Amino acid sequence: xxxxxxxxxxxxxxxxxxxxxxxxILFSLNNHQRSxxxxxxxxxxxxxxxxxxxxxDEYTTNQSERAKSQWISKQATLKKEIEENEHLFQDxxxxxxxxxxxISVNTSEEIFYQVIHVYEDPVSLSNPELQKVNxxxxxxxxxxxxxxxxSASTTLExxxxxxxxxxxxxxxxxxxxxFLILFVILAASFKxxxxxxxxxxxxxxxxxxxxxxxxxxxxxxDRAWNILLFNKSAVDLTGWSQKEAIGSPLRDILKIYNESDxxxxxxxxxxxxxxxxxxxxxNHTILIRKDGSExxxxxxxxxxxxxxxxxxxxxVIFRDLTHKQETLMLKSDFAYAxxxxxxxxxxxxxxxxxxxxxxxxxxxxEPIHDAYNAIISISKLSDKLxxxxxxxxxxxxxxxxxxxxxxxxxxxxxxxxxxIAEKSIEFESPEISKEKNIVSDKKILTxxxxxxxxxxxxxxxxxxxxxxxxxxxxxxxxxxxxxSGIGIxxxxxxxxxxxxxxxxxxxxxxxxxxxxxLHICKAYVHLLSGTxxxxxxxxxxxxxxxxIPDGSH
Length: 553
Fold this sequence. Notes:
The protein is an alpha+beta fold. The protein has three domains: 3-187, Four Helix Bundle (Hemerythrin (Met), subunit A); 214-386, Beta-Lactamase; 401-549, Histidine kinase-like ATPase, C-terminal domain (Heat Shock Protein 90, 2-Layer Sandwich), CATH 3.30.565.10. The chain is 60% helix and 15% strand. The protein is built from 16 helices and 14 strands. The chain has helices at residues 3-62, 65-85, 92-120, 122-126, 128-213, 232-238, 242-245, 250-253, 267-275, 324-328, 330-358, 366-392, 405-414, 417-422, 442-458, 517-527, and strands at 217-222, 227-230, 255-258, 279-280, 285-288, 294-305, 311-320, 401-404, 426-428, 437-440, 465-473, 476-483, 531-536, 542-549. Strands 1, 2, 3, 4, 5, 6 and 7 form a seven-stranded antiparallel beta sheet that branches. It has a five-stranded mixed beta sheet with strand order 9-11-12-14-13, with helices on one face. A two-stranded antiparallel ribbon has the order 8-10.
């Protein structure tokens, strides 16, 4: 996987994980603070209840006016506190306990005023024995009532203290989880970096072996005409070492002239640098080697293009044309070399250029992987071009045989297991009997399904959906492949099966392709005497339908 994509996924995961953890921590902190507030309020209520009880005891003992007035004041404060904070207690147990406190507070008020009446009413004062009995009775009730209120408020306070402790444990756990996740992510990132660094080193060794194993001389110049790469064959042909050549101006190392007029011959490189097209050197061109000897050469220049399509240099392949036979076979050999070597050469050049840059910045791994992906795209394009050419020349013929449909679908989906997991796509597979057999061309049908499922993945959204449905009707098989991707604009629909067509409702630099897949798919469907069509709207689901005959009927 591209290291850039890996780190992007890691960043997304970190953000997602910490958003969840942050939300949970904030939620727990909020609950923690609310429980602390409730516990504090209950404690204040409990203190006032205790104060009232002591003031009631003082009044019944001394009939103190100060105790009476303070009790009445504390009673008003207590009722106000309960009324103002009642909304904080929403749990059923809390409501029940608070209701007990309210009943106790109201009842105690009635009893206390009865106590006052006993001690201050003239009738009670005239009968000391009755006053004593009534006072003892009401005082006892007042004590029991106060004890009930204290018990309820203490229980309520304990409940909230337990919640506070529980929330604190949750907060500690969430913080520890955050640090653990961060540690795991850092460890995973280090592992990815180490693995990719190892792969890069192996690739560097492999690329160096490929370049040095090429029989033709290969060098690369940048737009400033400085040599970026110089392979072993170039060293042998020119006499200049890699150390002397790399980093030096091209004209200081290579002396390329027309054999007849002795004029410098770098026009083919200039044309390629400007036009981006492959250019060949003219005949009768010679190379003056470091020791002054001359050899006839033939070479070509191809553009060195970055992932944005910008020309950043020129790749030159050249060879010794001393023998007449080599001169006669130059063009055909170059075509063969281009076909056989261009991809590995370009790949090697990309990676080696990145390695050169990495000497200045050793953490610059991203261009290497971008280059690798670009070369993979070129390789796929080459394969598809060959496939299109074969189809256009009618060189493919269906080979009908009995196929187990269940096994075929499993085999196709197995190829996309990693891609589906990478984009977190939900894939709905059809329910097919393991004994279900059809008659068709297995290779062609497999290729058709692979192309359509690959497109459904590439043009889908992360966490999207893909469904594959199969139905049978009138000796025909209908495949439906639906994705939740970017859709197809109306103006693009007539062109969707044409060669090299790609829409403009997506970033073509991020989504690889050459616009050949659906053209190839349609050609294969026609080989099976079938039909293909689609239904889609811009930004909505896309469904491709393939109907082919079932030769088993």
